[in-house]
Structure formats: structure tokens, C-alpha cells
Amino acid sequence: MENNNDYKESLKKEIEELESSPVQYDAEYVQETEAPEPKLGRVTSHIRDKEEELKEVNERIGYINLLMVNLPSKGRFYRNDMRISIRAARVLEIREFSTMDENSILDVDEKLNSILNSCCRIEYGGRRGSHKDILEEDRLFIILSIRELTFATGENKLMINAKCNNCKHDNSYELRTNILQYYSTDEYDKYYDEEYRAFKFETKSSGTIVMAPPTIGVMRTVTEYIKEKEEKKENWDKSFLQLLPYLQRDWRGFDKNAIFNANVEFNGWSANKYSTVYRLAEKIRVGVKQELTCQCGNCDGEVTVPITFPGGIKGLFVISDLSGELL
């Protein structure tokens, strides 16, 4: 961090020296003069380059890279050159998160995605991506990782309590990324295709079926489609929309017209194809399990702990237990 600050300061100093130079860029002068001195443009171009470089340094300060292999998906369904880096949530972002309506699934979803949008940096070979490229099933892990950076000194712990069935001991576990447990796809990993970055199933009666866990972007489009249908009091096909996200890889260009066209195709499926895709969608889940299996602190017994958020989902970034804060 110290090196970043030194470099940042040196860039600022260099920009200030360039701008205070007796040679100044004058756009009007260049337009009216037939043969402007080339060095004017060079100086201005250099200033702009340095300003862009300084902006890039500012954007990267505070970010740390996530190891893709540590994600629930292990990074297998992303492009090879995708990188995810995160930073701690800032006060304005936490304030926005605190306005969440926990009784609205849509608002909860929006606020969680807002944290990702603000605190995640997605890159493909040096080019910027979007938080919408993240898999829905990696979202909780990444949000908890952001939370751990935000409260690095443990000032906002999420504790889950559970009683041991063997010895009746009251256990308490802190909800952190290192105790999360994930669904396994080991049985179907032989169908994983490195080129497609997805599962490629060859079936007897339905041909080739390519499937992968859905991205946030695809799920967002589907959610907005459902919301629009419900507001207009129109029917929508639940059986179709629960499968579509596993078949639609890219959220870019994916809209209600694309959903309509996919629904037309879906209506032509055989019963066998529907059943096959339905079961496969269940089997290729890679996200965080809703329950944790932990060891009792008093005996060797195992304790099953459902993942909950004391104080509600807001407790992810808004301190719910004031006992550690008040004197």
C-alpha cells in the first residue's frame, strides 16, 4: 500500500510539473494555426496519459485479487482470463445497503448486487467486465469476502448458535468464508468441457445439451421479466424460467424478446428432454450449501447449523450487535 501511495504521489507531481510548463496546450490556437508546433500535442498527450495512469492507480488501491479456485464454482465456468478483485465496502455503500427492504426479495437481490457492482473489479485479459458476469452461486462467497475486508478487525461478527444433539452443548460459530461448504458435482465432472467452460451432455434422445450455473446478469433479466409479467397480471411459465438460466450463457443481448423466442422453442420439447434438463439443473449446482456441518466444541459430535443472518441480511454490513461498540 505504501508503494502504491508513493507511485500515486510521483504521478501527481509529474502531472503538476507538466501542467506548469511554459508550453501549454491551447485547443483554439491549434485549430486556427496551420502548422502548430508538434510538441504542444505531445505534452498534452503525455499529461492525459499520466492522468489516465493516475486514475488507474486510484481505482486499484485497496483491491485484492480473489483466487478463482477458492470460489464455489472453482472458476470453471468463467473465461480463462477472467480475474475478480474486491475491496472493502465504503460508508456510502453501507448506507445504501442499510435501506434494504428485507421483506422484498427483489430489493434484497438489488442491494446485494449493488455491493458487488461497487466493490468488485472484473477483468478479462486487462479489459473491464461487469459484476453481471459473476455466477449467481458464487455471489454469497464474494459478498462474505467483501464483508471480511470491510470489518477486518472483527468489529461486526456474524455468530450462528446451535445446540449439539449428543451432549446438548451450546455452540457458537462465526459465519466466514472458510467454513462454507459447497454442493459437489463430482458425479458429473466427466461431462465438463474445457472448451465450452460448461457441462456438455450427450444424450440418447435429445442430442447435445450444454449447461452451466447461471450468471447474475441472466438471473437479473429473468427476474425483471417475471416482475413485469406480474405487474401486468400476465401468466408466465415457471417450469420454463427455472431452467432457462442454466441454458443461457451470456446476459449481453439477453432480453424479453430472447426469453419469448426461447419459450417458443421450449414448448416444442419432448417430455423426456424436459425431465432430463430438469434433473441435470438440480445436479450441477455448485453454490454454498444452506446448512453447515461443524464439530461440537465439547464432544466429537457433528452439529448441523443452518446459515442464518442474525439481525437479518442487513447484518452483513450493518452492525447488529452493539455490545462490542458501546462503552
Q: If you had to describe this structure to a student in words, what would you say it looks like?
A:
- The chain is α+β, with helices and mostly antiparallel strands.
- It has 3 domains: 2-60; 65-157, no CATH class; 186-283, no CATH class.
- Helix content is 39%, strand content 14%.
- The protein has helices at 2-19, 27-32, 38-60, 91-97, 105-119, 139-150, 216-231, 238-241, 244-247, 256-266, 271-283; strands spanning 64-65, 82-86, 120-124, 127-128, 159-163, 170-174, 192-193, 198-202, 208-211, 291-295, 302-306.
- A 4-stranded antiparallel beta sheet has the order 1-2-3-4. A 3-stranded antiparallel beta sheet has the order 7-8-9, with helices on one face.
- A hairpin with a 4-residue loop joins β7 (192-193) and β8.
- The protein is globular, with a radius of gyration of 25 Å.
| Strand arrangement, major sheet | 1-2-3-4
Question: Mind telling me the C-alpha Rg?
Answer: 25 Å
Give start-end ranges of low-pLDDT stretches.
18-36
Following the backbone from N to C, one meets helices and strands in this order, namely HHHEEHHEEHEEEEEHHHHHEE
Q: What's the rounded overall pLDDT mean?
A: 85
Distance separating the two termini = 32 Å
Major sheet description: 4 strands, antiparallel
Number of strands: 11
Assign the structural class, choosing from mainly alpha, mainly beta, alpha/beta, alpha+beta, or little secondary structure: alpha+beta
Question: Which overall shape is indicated by the principal axes computed on the Cα atoms?
Answer: globular
How much strand? 5-15%
Portion in helices: 25-40%
Number of helices: 11
| Overall number of structural domains | 3
